[in-house]
Amino acid sequence: MTLIPGDGIGPEVIAAATEVVAAAGVHVDWDRQLAGAAAFEAGGDPLPDDLLRSIRRNRVALKGPLATRVGRQGFRSVNVALRKAFDLYANLRPIRNIPGVKSAFTGVDLVVVRENTEDLYAGIEHQIAPGVVESVKIITARASRRIAQFAFDYAEVHGRRKVTAIHKANIMKLSDGLFLTCARRVAKQHPAIEYQELIVDNACMQLVLRPGQFDVLLLENLYGDIVSDLCAGLVGGLGVVPGANLGTRYAIFEAVHGTAPDIAGKGVANPCAAILSAAMLVRHLGEAAAAARIEAAVHEVVGAERHRTPDLGGRSPTAEITRAIARVVERTQ
Ligand code: NAD
User: Fold this and answer.
1) Quick one: which of 19, 34, 107, 98 has its CA closest to 300?
2) Which of 123, 74, 117, 114 minimizes the C-alpha distance to 95?
3) What does the pLDDT look like over 276-316, one tens digit per residue?
4) How many Cβ atoms are within 10 Å of 225's Cβ, its own excluded?
5) Is 13 strand, coil or helix?
6) Do 16 and 271 contact (CB within 8 A), yes or no?
7) Which element (helix H / strand E) includes 36?
8) Measured distance CA(50)–CA(3) in Å, rounded
9) pLDDT tens across 278-288, in order?
10) Which of 66, 92, 95, 253 could form a disulfide with 281 if both were Cys (CB 3.0 to 4.6 A apart)?
11) How far is the CA of 297 from the centre of ligand 1 (A)?
12) 64 CB within 6 A, ligand 1
């Protein structure tokens, strides 16, 4: 498998994830590759050919977060480039409480399905006159249909009862309108799954009021990005939410969080999101029992409160909680 340690806290949490996968007895040959700022510093290219070749060969990767500078400075997002290069059209983010972790809600169990290849992330921007810029939002029927199909298929396979399409088609009548038309068509082919539509601003309010009413959320790229972080906030923060970028041939697993520059290098990053992303990878490889053991170990260790990183109100460093999780995984083999 390709392993991208990433920038900021990436190397710390990815090392934790590989330690726990090894403890689970899943043998993986990691092909370590640089990307983003680390690759740029090493060889002047944030998306090196070696990395692309490695993913093409292995088809599956575990990835740490990559830094993208704000505004005009620096290179364009390597995260977006990777998702496009490997047609990883579906971003899947399960949002679940970890029992015992204090958060505003209990019993949250929802899944964000975010379109991953177009929308404003197409990166088409022009200055059309001094002081006037244009940013183009691309929505296609093909991408909208296939992400809706993904959401309904996922719901069916995983026994989910409802899909909520989240949009702003009252304002973006053509683009979000097309997204909704496609979602409705796919919904009609899945009569057993309840289908609901909500305007994105209302959806955000409903999420922070009563998250329990939601099950699978279907969103375009930008709304999906924003709503994912909001949802992470419902269950204790970015330190505990894993994710996967999935296409028909390739899969890249990564936590929802970014490089967390404010805590990078301090050894206090919460490794749980990366470990749970690695569990998703392990399940993808067909090792469902090992994946379940990793998830149960994270819940046991974090739930018991003895080992918690500062974001969850504890004082444990990354290495300590990682070792505790690895020990539980070994014990339950
Ligand atoms: P961030 O997710 O890096 O951090 C937001 C907040 O959450 C910070 O306070 C951070 O300390 C905290 N946090 C995040 N992960 C944590 C963890 N594992 N343990 C404890 N606390 C954690 O978001 P940001 O600050 O907006 O972005 C920083 C950089 O990351 C930017 O360059 C951005 O482009 C990049 N980014 C990359 C990805 C990715 O690679 N997929 C995703 C999001 C952001």
Assistant:
1) 98
2) 114
3) 999 999 999 999 999 999 999 999 999 998 899 999 999 99
4) 18
5) helix
6) yes
7) helix 36-43
8) 12
9) 999 999 999 99
10) 253
11) 24
12) no
